[in-house]
Design brief:
It contains 27 helices and 21 strands. The protein has a 7-stranded parallel sheet with strand order 3-4-2-5-6-1-7, with helices on both faces. The chain has a 6-stranded parallel sheet with strand order 8-13-12-9-11-10, sandwiched between helices.
Length: 634
């Protein structure tokens, strides 16, 4: 058996493990059921990948995150480690071939969603596999009290029945004590070794600022901390607006949201990862699997839906161990906004039934049919067709996805059909004067043989790869060809794919998950309440508040959060005369805003504002027409 550190050096080019990784790996190698509770950036994937490489056979990895599964499979294959993933949308034939590859192809990792375990074909083939380890990623999904509970996770117990002598490792980044206990019970872990790394991040300053002008405070922070940053926002539109605002202030910025094409996502991500752009402005679609150690600042312009989400997103700062900042900018509107976004759009059981029936009708699925049928899906068109509110309808689709009624793949793509409407010889004459289009046209002709004879569906991404250009360039060429009456073009945009996992049974289908819907709605309300309590509590250290949420109580104040800094300033007991003198010295250099004064005075904001008011009352200072302060005698 090769030593774990040798595998780490050979495949990952690291010379040492992160805290607790080595002990977890050793536990798994020794055959123990193991529970690894490591915060974001703790290196969970290596805790099962290295033990699996140490032993003969294949590791089955269960994960609900298709994008992350694909990323990990690609990363392993790039290292020369054979891995594949069974995701939704695959035909029976594709599934059959891939499972055969697992049995006979010397593969080391098989990634699959919990929904796939429901299929008899998958179960039968897994029986034949030489399995050396079962890894359950995002294990909190098995608990009804965990974030993003997915009933399909309860099927994982099938793996233990199929391979009773194979040990299991459960992994998650955030779980409270009662959730951990629930996971151990549901997975039937036998005397598991529990490894729980403290969630304490001593280098991370958690800060909450009440700010009416959030853009101004964001700009100030980023100009002071001129290093890699992430700004989290609520909507796709806002991600573009904030990025444009920062660019207008001469700060390099890009953006990321679920509506971008794959090319756009990859391009924007690469620019940020390589520090060609300082700031990534993103919705919560961004971040899974991203490990950029030098992120200095994470700012939330809008409130997250839960402490779990916030802890994971803020935890992307300071992974290199240097001081970093996790900042929430709030104002008096945020409480209503977060309730409107996350609570008022929780779908009732009756609404879920209605959306499900309309979805089946939309794709003309007959009663008792539809299992594993996949369709391109334009969400906005669907909502418009049935006059659904987009927010509550989207949450309903996510709920149906989590409960394995459907699988929703949120990836923007172009659906195109093309037919050449000029003769072959005329096309080549056209290309003589439009040589810049030749690579794309040639690729089209090579891939699609009957494209002169009939309307042909084409894959624009495949054409782009063949022609060694971007998908955006292919689309420009297609529009040019249509404009010049060379082709007939049908082009539509879809922002998702939907796979129906169960046969259609209308209300019966939803009745099976009605109790889960109601319980999850209650959980969401509790999570939002905890998030609001966190931002409003200005008396307890912010780090202590977060850690106590995850049941860590024996913790000292961090000394660097907004609460601790404010207390330290107050404890310094700065005399009013000292503050008064400092303000006057500042104003001797010219008119100043209240913001500038507060940021340059070594006292609390409340203390400083009180002294400013006193100076105004005594006519020592006055307010100008532009709402700045000046010395009255100047």
């Amino acid at each position: 058996m090769e030593h774990p550190i040798d595998l780490l050096e050979r495949y990952w080019k690291f010379t040492s493990f992160k805290p607790q990784q080595e002990a977890i790996i050793q536990s798994v190698i020794e055959g123990h059921d193991t529970f690894a509770l490591l915060p974001t950036g703790g290196g969970k994937s290596l805790c099962y990948q290295i033990p699996a490489l140490c032993k003969k056979g294949l590791c089955i990895v269960v994960s609900p995150l298709i994008a992350l599964m694909n990323d990990q499979v690609n990363a392993l294959n790039d290292k020369g480690i054979k891995a594949l993933a069974l995701t939704s949308g695959m035909s029976f034939q594709e599934l059959d071939v891939l499972l055969d590859n697992c049995i006979y192809g010397n593969y080391k990792f098989l990634y699959l969603s919990p929904e796939r375990l429901q299929q008899e074909l998958v179960q039968e083939r897994i029986k034949q596999l030489h399995v050396n380890l079962i890894a359950v990623d995002e294990a909190h999904c098995i608990s009804q009290w965990g974030n993003d509970f997915r009933p399909a996770y309860k099927n994982i117990s099938l793996l233990r029945e199929l391979h009773p002598n194979v040990n299991i490792i459960a992994l998650t980044a955030s779980a409270r004590t009662h959730v951990v206990e629930d996971i151990i019970k549901e997975l039937d872990l036998s005397q598991p070794k529990l490894f729980k790394q403290s969630f304490l991040r001593p280098n991370l300053a958690y800060m909450v600022f009440h700010e009416d002008d959030k853009f101004y405070r964001m700009e100030t922070i980023l100009k002071k901390q001129k290093a890699s940053a992430i700004i989290y926002v609520r909507t796709r539109r806002l991600s573009v607006e904030v990025s444009s605002f920062l660019e207008s202030k001469n700060m390099s910025s890009t953006f990321y949201h679920g509506g971008l094409t794959t090319d756009e996502k990859n391009n924007n991500m690469t620019q940020w990862l390589h520090n060609n752009k300082q700031v990534m402005v993103a919705t919560n679609a961004f971040g899974m699997g991203i490990d950029k150690p030098d992120v200095k600042t994470v700012i939330h312009l809008n409130l997250p839906e839960s402490i779990e989400s916030y802890f994971q997103e803020s935890g992307r700062a300071g992974r290199n161990g240097e001081k970093a900042y996790a900042i929430i900018l709030k104002n008096k509107n945020d409480e209503n906004l977060v309730k409107n976004q996350f609570l008022k759009v929780l779908p009732t059981v009756d609404f879920v039934k209605k959306v499900y029936r309309k979805l089946c009708n939309y794709f003309q699925i007959s009663y008792g049919e539809g299992e594993y049928n996949t369709f391109d899906f334009n969400f906005n068109t669907f909502c418009k067709t049935y006059n659904f509110s987009s927010n509550i309808c989207y949450n309903t689709l996510l709920l149906l996805d989590r409960n394995s009624i459907i699988s929703l793949t949120r990836q923007f793509h172009n659906k195109a059909s093309v037919q050449f409407v000029i003769p072959n010889h005329s096309l080549f004459s056209y290309l003589e004067t439009h040589s810049e289009l030749e690579d794309v046209v040639t690729s089209l002709l090579r891939i699609y043989g009957g494209i002169f004879d009939h309307i042909t569906k084409i894959n624009t991404l495949k054409v782009a790869e063949k022609a060694s250009v971007t998908e955006a360039y292919v689309l420009r060429v297609l529009h040019q060809l249509e404009k010049d009456q060379v082709i007939h073009l049908n082009l539509t945009n879809t922002d998702a794919k939907i796979t129906f996992i169960e046969p259609r049974e209308d209300d019966k289908t939803i009745n099976r998950i009605a109790a889960v819907i109601e319980q999850q709605n209650q959980l969401k309300q509790n999570q939002v309440k905890a998030m609001l309590k966190y931002i409003d509590n200005d008396s307890v250290c912010k780090s202590k508040q977060l850690l106590s949420y995850f049941d860590e109580t024996e913790v000292e104040p961090c000394g660097i959060c907004t609460v601790c800094l404010r207390k330290n300033k107050i404890n310094k007991d700065i005399s009013p005369n000292t503050i008064k003198k400092s303000i006057i010295e500042l104003l001797e250099n010219g008119d100043q805003t209240s913001r500038h004064i507060i940021s340059h005075i070594n006292a609390s904001e409340d203390q400083t504002l009180k002294i400013i008011n006193t100076l105004l009352e005594h006519n020592i200072i006055s307010i100008t027409e532009t709402n700045t302060y000046k010395l009255s005698h100047l």
